[in-house]
Fold these 3 entries.
Entry 1:
Amino acid sequence: MIAWPAPALTQLPGRGEIPTVHDTATDSLRRLDVGPGENPKAGVYVCGITPYDATHMGHAATYVTVDVLNRALLDAGAQLAFVQNVTDVDDPLLERAKRDEIDWRELAEREIQLFRDDMTALSVLPPDHLVGVVESIDLIGRDVVKLLESGAAYRIGVAEADGQGADDVYLDLSQQPEFGRTSGFDEAQMDAVFADRGGDPAREGKRTRFDPLLWRAEREGEPSWDVAGLPAGRPGWHIECSAIATAYLGPRFTVQCGGTDLIFPHHEMSAVQADALYGEGAFAQVYLHQAMVGLEGEKMSKSKGNLVLVSRLRQQGEDPALIRLVLLAHHYRTPWDWTGDGVEEGRRRLARWRSADAQTREVVGGLDAPSAGLLADVRTRLADDLDTPGALAAIDAWIEAGADPAGLGEAPLGDIVDALLGVRL
Ligand code: 5CA
Ligand code: ZN
């Protein structure tokens, strides 16, 4: 499906470094393996929205974090292949459509467009491929068939579902020695979240309770598609990301991103399914997870309904640059809450930055080399595990010390924050 228009990308003098990020799978800081030589292209995948409600600040935090990563990679001279899915058919979407008496396709289309508008307003670089599940049924179905043919997957009959002997399909985790490697979760941790996050541990006929659903045979009133070798049905959730990521980025790619709520089961299963398809060590080489953003001490989630929406703030006339600054004031690994105080702090900061940029923009001569000064500082902070609070603090400190244009490093402040932070002054 079409993505959204790309914002103009300001080129900065010199180059940043390929960033390090915290990898969930190894619980360590890892420099992304891209650059001249074997891996010139960074393959970045982020789990996209399930379009049954509008984009909230938790989603925005995830997509802005990935955007900062992408901007750092481009600034370091890497080529980028960026892919994002859209879960445009799944239980929560179907349930919401039923509740609101609206066609599920119409609901999805409406929320996807709102998401595009939100991402455009927030100056998020669009993916090269924004890929819906509905348009990828064949691609996903083919992978399910492959898993059945290799014996990695098995069928469970759907009792009384349709009288045609249709089967759901599951992956057999007992054959996957890598299971658990991505999340690092032990069984107790897995049990604690599996059922809440779409899992069906008690389903009769499963070989092990965490086995993920690959294909769901048609149930009455649910949409379904025909794929050769499978009963009419639709893909399970995790296989969509295994299939889409590997189809567009290859069986091994640089980094898989999403919120920490996806560590288990979603990213664990996506990775293990790719192992089953392509062999051990397939899928992402690094897993980056955005901590949960809450509101007044609770996780912000569509199901709880405690949402601060990007679109609502935009309607109220808030500057998208302000929304970005509020998000960037928090490191991606630290959970935080959206608060009125945070917004006011962002507002003051944006005003300070705009005034400093206006005062120094015309003074181009006499700046230091790009390897020194504020530009170099901001680059160094971002290359160190996307330290956005550190980058903001470096800019604040430069302003507090008198906003000397000689300390900028061959680029106006407005260009530095536009290119690296996506904030328009
Ligand atoms: N469609 C699936 C991924 S394949 C999904 O999780 N959709 S979502 O709409 O629920 O979430 C979209 C993205 O926002 C995911 O990467 C998710 O991890 C992230 N996310 C959701 N809630 C929060 C939150 N409160 N804080 C931070 N990130 C969040
Ligand atoms: Zn996903």
Entry 2:
Amino acid sequence: MEPTSLSGRKILLVISGGIAAYKSLTLIRELKKLRCDVKCVLSGNAHHFVTPLSVAAISENRVYSDLFSLTDEHEMGHIRLSREADLVVVAPATADLIAKMANGLADDPASTVLLASTSRILVAPAMNTAMWENPATVANMDLLRSRGVLQVGPGEGELACGDVGPGRMVEPSEILEAIILALKTRGALDGMRALVTAGPTYEPIDPVRFLGNRSSGKQGFALAAELASEGAETILVSGPCALPDPSGVDTVRVETAEEMLAAVLQRLPADIAVCAAAVADWRIDSQESTKIKKDTGQQPALSLIENPDILATLSAISDSRPALVVGFAAETERLLENATDKRRRKGCDWIVANDVGPKSGVFGGDTNTVHLITDKGSEAWPTMTKVEVARSLVQRIADHFAPQ
Ligand code: PMT
């Protein structure tokens, strides 16, 4: 094992209420020795086995143990906590917590961050043999594995209750090996480089005013997070928005369309480009260097000039064009007709058409209803959350690059 192999990696350790929780302290110490950032969440019962104070002292981070703590929510909401991690490790994972995970329950900090998490999850089960072999637990673990949850252990041997059999949480050294393996496991886009644009652009009118739009960045940020979790080295170039940087994504913040284009071109080459940004089509021809005054007696006349088209520029690059260029089409009428035409005019390979009419709630909302248009035609996808749209699109991208 390389001593620096986990340097800077973010681990969220969920400790549930089992006797094996004392071993988690050793695991935290080993992770800290490898210089990774460990944040810990205690389930409702974990504090009976380890104290938040000892976990905080060893992890050198605050410990999250109260779902409704105002301080915790203020400093790091449970949603952000659950998404920032490169890997979520549940050790020990009791039968109760495994059942909650399988059934989507969220009634304490541990089950809540697990339900909200979009990161990979590794569980180290720990329980009595009869509980481990109970058909309910067997079915719950089958379900979790089918959803991509990783598992280490349990080991066999003498259990705390005196029984002998499977159910013992494996030693921290074995969990550590599983963590290293999970962090190194290759995704479908491993070794590829992806560029994503997201959010609006702001085009200044004068030092205090700008032309902008209602894009929140949610769709583009979700795409960047999914590309990164499939192993692509991902660069996200975003216009002004309130979202935090997605974990494992190199995020570049810009303001104007011209800055966005420069940032994108500077970061080529890339294998994949996904343009989800709502780039302003025009900017003000000559910006005022001082605030335009209202009391001049004249209405200001704004003269607009066209902005560069980032998607069209990327699609037309002769030497370093990304192998797959995906655009979005935001339409309020004749969705398929306009989007198909846009795909042809801009020269991109695929276009994702979404209806952004006033009733759709797509700008700023959490769901999207899209059509994917490729050279093979168009397909309608059902309404999904933006994260699910991102997951489906990234799956299609992975299929596109998969060896035939
Ligand atoms: O950010 P959210 O609130 O989550 O909303 C998501 C979204 C509606 C912004 C997103 O799903 C979406 O549709 N993004 C594209 C918005 C847009 O500007 O569409 P368009 O039809 O005007 O542009 C077509 C394509 O050209 C887009 O890929 C756009 O990024 C690109 N473009 C447009 C103009 C320009 N100057 N440069 C570009 O790259």
Entry 3:
Amino acid sequence: MRVAMIGSGYVGLVSGACFSELGNDVVCVDLDADKIAGLNRGEMPIYEPGLKRLAEGNVAAGRLTFTTDLKQAVGGAEVVFIAVGTPSRHGDGHADLSYVYAAAKEIAAALNGYTVVVDKSTVPVGTGDEVERIIREVRPDAKPGAEFDVVSNPEFLREGSAIEDFMRPDRVVLGVSGERAQEVMRALYQPLYLIETPLVFTSRRTAELIKYAANTFLATKISFINEIADLCEALGADVQDVAKGIGLDGRIGPKFLHAGPGYGGSCFPKDTLALVKTAREAGAPLKIIETVVELNTLRKHHMAERVISATGGNVSGKTIGVLGLTFKPNTDDMRCSPSLDILSVLIKAGAALRAYDPEGMSEARKIKALDAITWCDDAYGALSGADSVVIITEWNEFRALDMERLKKVMKSPVMIDLRNIYNPDEMAAAGIAYYCLGRPGNDA
Ligand code: NAD
């Protein structure tokens, strides 16, 4: 099948490379000419394990190309995906749909023969209706069901394991009305269906809501275990054991039950906010999600306060080592990472920060609020002369630090582990003042 992917960011690039791997002819389009030029030189604009190899193989096989020419890409495609960004709109928390609508207009003008226009971006309920309206407005000659159809196919991949998630998803959700579009989508996803991926066909509006319901549910799980961690500290219980004890219950499941510094990334913060807005406007407010949003904001500030209190209560003039900046490991994505809020508080409180992240530093360096940070080449560089160290992201290379070396390079061996990657007893035995989340032995 001939596929055009409008937007070659995280989702567009990964989906485009994976669809080409499944044997389709894919053109990835972006309006960022530098990004496309880089892709045409074999340079990936994001760090995602396995993506470069996958893209290279399919480019070499002639199934994957990159262009800024949307008109040509859409004109030759049977299926056109919209995979552009839907960030929080400035000021009100609604999803900013300007990129989606601009793409819809351009696609409409380029339609050439029956085409299925598929929205893969995360968009509020009703966006597919508006995309259809825009296409009809730009092309009064084009009728849904005859010249085009608009489908909702939200994406659930996770950064860091995006290719595996795309190739072996738990399910594929397809919001489709009309037999013709349904057959096209079924044929496109047939290779995944053969490995028994459930294809969930539903209405377009329902598909749009499924994506938000999934993300806000997961964000709620994270906030839930973070609150339980605080309670564990107050009661002398262990949050890791609580998570294990409840996670083994099949009705609950073990994932997203790790206490941490709060959720971040390019999706959960904006999607929770957008659903809160949608629900309020629909007259059916979601009190649970409103509370989750509030808790998550507070959480990041509480984490900064913990670092300050473990570093003697006043960090003015003190040096703090920072391990990890991205919102999770195996990505270079800094969008809405908890590190941004935590480190801004520490900088304002007068701390000198030395930071290291295996993949996130080139993105982090672009962020003005982090200008004051000294960027280091490795973990021990970040610890050098530090009064304390905070682990913000659980990259594998931080899981087995040499504690003797750490003690030698730090001014005082104080560790605040916001990901609970070390064992409190072992840290006590190693002579490290160790502060973690929701576990005994924690005096933060
Ligand atoms: P991104 O910012 O990485 O990429 C978007 C790309 O679209 C950019 O490269 C931009 O230049 C391009 N673009 C914008 N308008 C365009 C146009 N008219 N024509 C061509 N290109 C255009 O965004 P992303 O992280 O890939 O997210 C895309 C969507 O997918 C969002 O709605 C997001 O919520 C959703 N999503 C993201 C993830 C994730 O993990 N990143 C997972 C699931 C869903």
